[in-house]
Amino acid sequence: MKKENVLKEIKSAFSGVTLGNGIGLWEAQAIDDYESEEVQKRNRDKDEKEDWSQLSYDELQHCHSSLSFFDAEGMRFHLPAYIVGSLDNNVNSPIFHLTQLDDYAILKLAALNPAQRQAIVMYLKWCLEQAQYEFEYPTIRRALSEYWN
User: Entry's Pfam families (predicted)?
Assistant: First the structure.
């Protein structure tokens, strides 16, 4: 499977997705840092809310732990940016958040529509063809069979 095809599928499936009322990137960082609600609100004010493709790789990498603190809308908005960034090794892969699927993690994926889910399946299958993810192959296969398919 070609990386370009995965990239096209992700961009198409998540085109037009906005943050809405979801938890934003910097807001999630404040949550991770146990900041006050006031700081969380200030951070949300600086969050990108309209176009996930505008998030820089530096921001995504700096805020990689935010993946653990998004709600379903926040995950739907940010996940394509993390996937796109990881395809070119500009951002750490979000594979953990797509394969370690306890009840809480599954709730964060609840806002994904069928096309978005299929794009993520395509990404996970692409990862199975990449030597750099060899350590993750068993968890990717399990997630594909038990959750994604």
Answer: DUF6714
